[in-house]
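REQUEST ID: PR-0412
SUBMITTED BY: lab tech R.K.
PRIORITY: routine
TASK: structure prediction, single protein chain
INPUT:
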Amino acid sequence: MLGIIGAMGCEVEKIVSCLDGAKETMICGQQFWQGKLGGRDVVVARCGAGKICAAMCAAAMVIRFGVSGIINTGIAGGLDKSLRQGDFVLAEDVVQHDYDTTGVGDPIGWFSKLKTTSVSCDPVLTEKLYNSIDKGPWQIKRGRIATGDQFIADEDKNTWIRDTFGAAAVEMEGAAIGAVCAQSGIPFAALRCISDGADGEAPLDFPAFARIAADRCADAVIKLMEAT
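STATUS: complete
OUTPUT:
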């Protein structure tokens, strides 16, 4: 069984609508839908924003549903200056930009349990995701996604995250989900569609484009399941 996690309703609603025999379950205030997608058993969850919610959700998927891997889908702010609204970032690895224990000698963004500053995505699952993306006029960039408990809408913070971590996009859940997967020994992949420039200067505002961007990622996840 594969797990699929999005933070907001718009990031998972399209996927849930395609489930056969969907059964809803509430665990610790989070919504889970179990069913079949493309003939395969899946569990889809709306975890809520932020690393705490994301980690709780991923752990529940592992413990309660016994998932064999997790895909994180949704929207993100662009850090790479070449990215525009509607472009994709397919994660090669994830980092946490807001975790700082440098005062005791750790590198910034340290995952203390994993003894690393980044969590790698599973190459097989990632490649399947890439093959499932609609190759339209938008860019598909492979790179690093940064996670933190902040909605980034400031150019200075945007630049700091990009320059410090070499990240292409920023969001609020991926690294937490990736860490749970790494500690549980299961594959993890993340696909994000750029909804804004994470700098407060988006030509089309965040609420207006969020659903469009989320649906593009959802389409790729649905196609992956139908093709597997």
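NOTES: Strands lie at 2-6, 20-27, 30-37, 40-46, 69-78, 88-96, 119-120, 140-147, 169-171, 188-196.
REVIEWED BY: pending
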